[in-house]
Structure formats: structure tokens, C-alpha cells
Amino acid sequence: MMDRAGRLPLLGILLLITMLIAAGCGGNNKAGNGNAEPSNAPSAEPGNDAEAGSDTVLSQITERDKLIAGVKFDTKLFGLKDPGSGNVEGFDIDIAKAIAKKLLGDETKLELKEVTSKTRMPMLNNGEIDLIVATMTVTDERKKEVDFSEIYFNAGQSLLVKKGSAIRGLDDVTKDTKVVGVKGATSIKNIEDKVEGLRVQQFENYQEAFNALKAGQGDVLTTDNAILYGMTKQDSNYEVVGGTFTDEPYGIAIKKGQADLVTAVNEVIAELKSSGEYDRIYEKWIGEKPETKQ
Amino acid sequence: MDFTSAYSRDNLSFLLEGFGLTLWLALLAIIFSFVLGCVLGIIRYAKVPVLSPIVGLFVELVRNLPLLLLIFFARFGLPELGVSLPPFWAAITALTLFEAAMIAEIVRSGLNSVDKGWVEAARSSGLSYGQTLQQIILPIGLRRMVPPIVSQFISLLKDTSLTVVITLGEMMHHANIVMGQNSRIVFPILLLVAFMYFIVNYVLSLFARRLEARQT
Prior knowledge:
The complex is a heterodimer of chains A (294) and B (216). In chain A, 41% of the residues lie in helices and 19% in strands. By secondary structure, chain A is of the alpha/beta class. Chain A folds into 2 domains: 55-155 and 249-286, D-Maltodextrin-Binding Protein, domain 2 (3-Layer(aba) Sandwich); 157-241, D-Maltodextrin-Binding Protein, domain 2 (3-Layer(aba) Sandwich). Chain B has one domain (3-215): MetI-like fold, CATH 1.10.3720.10.
């Protein structure tokens, strides 16, 4: 009895080890497919490249003849991957394309690498990506770690109303206005601080809040304008009014000490704005012209 | 809720592609961590001077860290130490080390559960310590470990979803991308993802139960 019991697991181990060897051989190719492309670019060692004048990120981009931009893959309007075609599309992507076109003469000389708000800083500082175009708000805190380009999108909290509503901005919101928002979001605190006595009616998620607005349970829905613009795309009977009343502008982040790249990117933004191309991109994704006051 | 647009062909095949990577991650990590875990567990059990305390230290350290931290460390901490792994292998490394530490403890307690009397009987009938380990302790102990090891593998398959933080293209991450399209499809997509994890893990646990039943 002991003998029979003994062989079974030992045989199992042998089998597993064989599988292990087989898998180890096949593993290398497969790993490349799973989005986990071995990053071939970051040859620059962290730390000593900032002062090495001849080896700037900009010169690496020209040498490699490709711009590597870190973008979001899961954010509607700004950077969203289409499961069918595999293409990533959005406002941020079009800005990245414009930068590639300016630096390398061709907007297809662009590699998009996915970043999230947690991975973008380390990836930039590792040299895995050349710049971040990923709904990144410019803050003083972040300026200590990276450099930012000029602002390319004025993000901030705004108001969504039914077209033709008497409410045209934050000044029209009183403590008796029916405002809806999403539970736990800082946007609720923001507006309650600005309008004394106001109590925001809170919903579980954006869709429920939007449904409540449509059903007439509220007059105004408030949150980040980028999300509100997404809602106007779902239903064109609604519009964003009054501009932003908090300031969370998006900038393009670049590794510290790369002044030439920052200048080049700023030139692109300025050219886009003066040529009208910026307005076209803005309208394509946001659904309306950019505010002129800023 | 919009089930029709959630379960479009494109979305489903994209999720399935992610599921493939989930299974591949889990399979590799299971194999590596099983082998490594057995070795570590046996070393710790055998009380080899110097080696066993080192292994003990490693196991206790890794076992008591959050897996999320290990994954992030393997992806972004190691490069700063000069070890640059592709993201996929960074994830495999983190999963393997963590699960191996868990399995090492299962193996050690399985071996400890073998009746000391049997060990003494084997030794006094002239078997060396190595022979006793190989012919008495391991066969009995390993059989007892099968159910807890399988349930550790079930955890491992679920743990692969944590690699979402380093944007590996596994199922949970692909689900996030799909859900970005429209907030009306969040529920249907999560439901489907839950179902896929459940099916695989349920089959695994049925398998474990059969093994357990055969023992008694």
C-alpha cells in the first residue's frame, strides 16, 4: 500500500518538471504577444542622462525615428482602445500624433504605450516612454518630479444641463437648485463649498446620475468636464455650461532636464492652436469648440 | 444596463484574448511556484544548517508582503537595481515568489504531519535520512498536501488579476478597457468576467475534491 501511495505524487512532480521545461522554451515568444513587449528603447541609465547633453530624449527620438508616448487605453474621449480594431483613439492620441508629425515628419512614427495614473511617472523616469499625454493634471507637486508643456486641455469641474435651461453657470446655482452628483466624489464637496446651503443629491455612478438628470430629478449634474462631455455625446439634448470652476488643466509631462523637448512640444501646441487644427481636434472629440475666454 | 452592446463580438473576443493571457500567466506561475515551493518547503523541513534559516527568512518575508507590492516592485523597483525584466516576466517573477512562499509553508506542514514513529521506524530499520525522506516522508506528506496546494492554485489564478496595476493584457485589464466605452456595460462585463474566473476555479476545486475523496 505504501508503495502505490508513494509513486503517484513523485510521478506527478516528474510530469510537472517536464512541463516546466517545455513551457520555458515556448515562453519567450508568447510573452512578447501579451502586450508585454520587451521594452527595447530604454537604454538610458536612470540618473546620469539628464546632464549628458548629447544624449537627450529628443536626440533619442530622432535616432530611433519613432516617438514613444504614454497614453491611456481606457479613458473615453482621451485615449480608448477599440477592442475590434485594436486602435487607440482620442484627444490625447491626436495630440501625440501631431507631436510625432512635427518631430519626425510623419504621424505614424508613433508608438503608443499604455500608462495609468500609477505607472506613468515611473515609466517616464525609466525612459520607457518619451512623454506622457494621458489626462495628466499639472500640479505644483508633480512639477517637482517632471516638467510640463503648456496646457493643452482645460479640465476642471463644470455643469451639465438640459439645452435651454436657465442655468448658464455656477452663478445661477442657488441652495434651492436641484444638483445631482456621484457619491464620494470631491466634486460634491467643491460645489457645496462654493454655494452655501446647497445639498447635492448623490447617486452611485455617473450613469445613474445622468439618468436622474434626464428624468427631471435634478436640474444640474456636476463633475469633471471631460466626463460631462462624454455624456453630451450620449445625448445631444444636454450641454456643458459656464466653463470650469475648478482648475485641473492637462499638460504633457516630460522628464526633467529636457528643455529642448519641452520647447519642441510647446511649439507644436502653439502651431496647432494658431492653425486651427487644435479647434478641429477639440471639436472632433469634445463635440464643441473650445472656450475662447482662455 | 445594456447586454447587447456589452457582449458584442469585438468585446467578447477581446476579453477572451485577455483570458488567454490570464491562463498563461497562471499556468507558468503555478509550475514555477510549485517546483520552487517544494524545494523551499523541503529545505525548511529538513533543518539544514545555515540554508534552512535563510529559506525560513525568505518565506516569512515574502509571505507577509502584499502581492500588489511585489508586482509593482518587480516591474518598477528592480530596474532601479539594474534588473530590467519585460513586464510579463516581472509579473511571473512576483507571482512565483509569492506563491512559492505560500506553497513552501503548505509543504512544510504536510511533511511535519507525517507520524514521527514512522520516521523513527524507517531510520532504525537502516534507511538513511535521505532515503527516509524520499521513501517515507515525501510520499505520505505530499498526498496530504494536494488539497491545500490546489486551493493555493485557485488563489493564484485569481491573484493574476492584480497584474492589472502594471497594465498587462490579462482579462481584468481588458475588461477595464472595454468598460471605458460606456458606463452602461459595466455590470454585464463584470458579470461575464466573474463567470469566467468562476468556471475555471470551480473545475479546479472539483478536481481537488476528487483527489481528496480518493485518499480516504
